[in-house]
Amino acid sequence: MSGPVPELEERAERCADALRDAESVLVASHIDADGLTSAGIAARMLERAEIPFESVFEKQLDDDAIAGIAASAYDTVLFTDFGSGQLEAITEHEERGEFTPIIADHHQPAEAETAYHLNPLLEGVDGGSELSGAGATYVLARAFESEAGANKDLAALAIVGAVGDMQTTDGELTGANVAIAEEGVEAGVLDTTRDLALYGTQTRPLPKLLEYASEVYVPGITNDSSGAMRFLDALDVETRTDGDWRTWADLSHEERQAVLSALIKRAVRNGVASEKLDALVATTYTLAEEEPGTEVRDASEFSTLLNATARYERADVGLAVCLGDREEAYDAAKELLAQHRQNLSSGVRWVEEHGVTAEEHVQWFDSGDEIRETIVGIVAGMALSADGVSREKVILGFANKSAEESKVSARGSHALVRRGLDLSEVMGEASRSVGGDGGGHTVAAGATIPRAEREAFIAAVDRLVGEQLD
Ligand code: C5P
Ligand code: C5P
Ligand code: C5P
Ligand code: ZN
C-alpha cells in the first residue's frame, strides 16, 4: 500500500485487478484538458503492461454515447473523467453483459453501484478541488504498475489535468493533488517553485504577460499595452533581445526579482491593497523535462493547449501531445491554439457587448450560435471578471447545441460554495425538471436542455440557488 492517496488505495487495487484480467480495453474520456490527460495516463499505463487498447472521446457521456460504447467489440471499458454521474445508464449495459465498466472519475456520483469505481467523493476526498479525473486515473496507474514507482512519471500529466480543471485555490493545489505533485518532483518530471503567478510566463512576450494579467489589476499596466511597455522600458533589465521582447522564462532569477519588485512598488504607489499583491506570487507547476519557453512547459499553458484540440474535435492531436509528440501533432495543436484564443476573446467580447440578464440569484446570457457549445463554459468563467458582470452571482451561459437543444454552463465562486452553493445538484435537478440532463461539480457544472424550455430552466435554477444560499 504505497499509493499517493491512501483513502483511495483499496478501490484503486480492485480496479487494477480488473484491468489485469482484461484482454483489451476501450478507454473512454472527456474532451477537455483533464479528459485528455486522463486518457494519456491510461494509454501509457496500458502500453507499459502490453494490454491492447483504443481511445474514444465524448463531449458528454449521454445515453447515446454509452450505447455507442456498448456496441463496440470491447469487453472492458475504462471510463476516465466521466462515468460516475452516468452510473445508472452504465450499469444497465453492464447488467446486460455488454461490458465490464471500470471508472476513474471525480464528478458527483449517481446512486447506482458498480464493482470497479474509483472516485474521491466516495471516500470523503473533495473531487472538485483535491483530485481531478487525471488524478484519479493516476492513482489507478500507480496501483496497476508492475514495478514499484514505474508510473510515477505520469504525475506530470495528472497535474496538468488538475490545473486545467481549475483545482488551484489561491494559486496552490491542495490535498491529494499535492501528494501527486510531490511524486512528480521525486520522479524528476515536475518542478514546484514559487514564482510569478500570471498566465503565460513561458510563451507571452513580457508586455503581453503584464497587460493581460487579469489576476491582479495594476493601474497603468493591466489592460494598457503602451503602459506595460513603458513600465518595462524604464527598468534596468534587458527586456528585449535584438528588439524582440523576451518572456518571463527568458529572464534570470535576478532579472525576475527586479521586475517583480518594480511591479509591486508601482502597484502599491497606485493604491493596490497588499493582500491583492500576495496573489502575484504562488506555486507554479513546471514540467521539468519540457523545453523552456514552450506551451508544454507550464501546467496552465499546457492545459490551454489541450483544450484547443479536443474541444474542436481534434482529441487525436491533444492525446498525441500528451504522449510526447513534439513534432507534427504539436505543430497542429499550436495552430488550433491560435484559433482557440481568438474564439475565447471574441466570446468574452460578445458577452461584454450584449451584457447579461440579472435574475435574483443568477445572471445569464444566451449566445445562440455565436459561441461554440464546447467552449461556452470557459467563456462563462472568464466573463465573471468582465465589465458589467457581477462576481457575486452565479453565471449561466447558453449556446445552441442543435435545432432543439441548448448547452448551458454554470460557474460560481468559492465564496458562494462556502455559503452552500452546489451547482452540480442545481444543474442536475433544474435540467431534469424540463426534460434535460446535467451535473458536474459544486463550483462548475453544465447541462443540456430543450431550447424551448430556457425560461422555465432559468426560473428553476434561480429558485434552487436561492434555496441553497439561504
Ligand atoms: O468535466 P470537468 O471536471 O473536466 O470540468 C471542470 C470544469 O469546471 C472546467 O471547465 C473548469 O474550468 C471548471 N471550473 C471552474 N472553476 C473552478 C473549478 C472548475 O470554472 N473553480
Ligand atoms: O486553462 P483554461 O483553458 O481554463 O484557460 C482559459 C483561457 O483563458 C486560456 O485559453 C487562456 O488563453 C486564457 N487566460 C488568459 N489570461 C489569464 C488566464 C487565462 O488569457 N490570466
Ligand atoms: O461543459 P462545462 O465546462 O460547463 O462543464 C462543467 C462541468 O459540468 C464539467 O465537469 C462537466 O463534465 C459537467 N457536466 C455534466 N453534465 C453535462 C454538462 C456538463 O456533468 N450535461
Ligand atoms: Zn475533470
Automatic annotation (TrEMBL):
Q: Which Pfam families match?
A: DHH (PF01368), DHH_CID (PF21763), DHHA1 (PF02272)
Q: What Gene3D superfamilies does the record point to?
A: 3.10.310.30, 3.90.1640.30
Q: InterPro entries from the entry? A: DDH_dom (IPR001667), DHH_CID (IPR048515), DHH_sf (IPR038763), DHHA1_dom (IPR003156), SSDNA_exonuclease_RecJ (IPR051673)
What sequence ranges are listed for the domain DHH-CID? 198-281
Source domain of life: Archaea
Question: DDH domain spans which residues?
Answer: 25-161
Q: What is this protein called?
A: Recombinase RecJ
Organism of this sequence: Halocalculus aciditolerans
